[in-house]
Write a structure and sequence with these properties.
Helices cover 46% and strands 13% of the residues. By secondary structure, the protein is α/β, with parallel strands linked by helices. The protein has a single domain, classed as Aldolase class I (TIM Barrel, Alpha-Beta Barrel), CATH 3.20.20.70. The strands form two sheets. Strands 2, 3, 4, 5, 6, 7, 8 and 9 form an eight-stranded parallel sheet that branches. A three-stranded parallel sheet has the order 10-1-11, with helices on one face. α2 packs across α9. The relative contact order is 0.16. The structure holds S-adenosyl-L-homocysteine and iron/sulfur cluster. The site of iron/sulfur cluster (SF4) has 10 residues, from loops.
Length: 362
Amino acid sequence: MDTEIKSILKKETFSKEDLVRLLSCNEEESRKIFERSKAVKDEQVGKKVYFRGLIEYSNYCSKNCLYCGIRAGNSRYIRYQMPDEEVLEAAKYAFDHKFASIVIQSGERNDRKFINSIERLLREIQRISEGMLHVTLSLGEQTEETYQRWFAAGAHRYLLRIEVSNPELYRKLHPNDKHHDYNKRIEALIRLRKVGYQIGTGVMIGLPFQTIPDLADDLIFFRDFDIDMAGMGPYIEHKDTPLYQFRKELLPLRERFLLSLKMVALLRIIMKDINIAATTAMQTIDPQGREKALLVGANVIMPNLTPVNYRQNYLLYENKPCLDEEAEECKSCLEARIALAGDEIGYGEWGDSRHFKRRQNS
Ligand code: SAH
Ligand code: SF4
């Protein structure tokens, strides 16, 4: 058994069957994968972990993804949009503490007012940091014109998860209308690349109806799309969502967690020089989830800079950790956690994906 895993790991490229076998292996066997992915990480991206301060800008969303707590159809949350001053304060905190980079995330909105607000904020962030603070956006699908405007205003990277790369499965997890269309999601990713962003995408792991071959296809999708960054994490059910009715069909949390670690590790082996996030959803299942993800290949962490009073209303999934932790506590806690994982923080460094740089130079 063990030798079979070892011989697959020696291959230059994995086939879909290889990936299915590796993703199906037990906890004992998975250690071999983790040893390998750790070695690849140390050799290719080193021990530096980069901070991206996360600002959960607004929970207004025009979409209704069946898994997400802040979907438009959920009336339980008080809707908010952070005032500009608070966003700029959070950006300044990141800049002063040498985070070098922030992520602005929110529900999806395509109206003029929203588009203008983001553009204005990007210009202000450029101004107060004299162009030194890098900004990643995670604001869903937009037109090419909008992506271009935000790029021109100073955004460098964009996170848009494909969520699942299997179009049929995508249909089962989203309402059946033109606003939730798999092909449009792919087109948005292509558009982002065309405009010049560093592209991050990702998937949820352990969703109802999702199979191991689906996850193998997700890894192949990342490779074929030649992504620069990835953010993947376990799916975590939320009781105010339509998908909650399938909770009995889910893998137990521990298994979802192990599967997520394997996905991170295998992606590191396959795409050696990309940036991979140790996501908060990993920590939701295991208190040391993010450190464990760093140990098997992740190299980016997103400390939450959202003011605490908004966090209860930005619950994409339940049991989200650190709801009452201010930025300062969050930072100290992460410093300790990263040291425990044997890594160091790349303070003051943008930490651009090496993959992106190589892609640009080739
Ligand atoms: N509205 C934007 C960004 C905010 S949502 C977008 O959809 O792209 C950010 C991510 O949260 C989504 O891409 C999804 O992968 C994740 N998410 C939503 N609901 C989740 C759940 N129940 N469990 C785990 N992750 C979830
Ligand atoms: Fe809105 Fe994003 Fe949640 Fe979908 S995943 S409902 S687009 S916030």
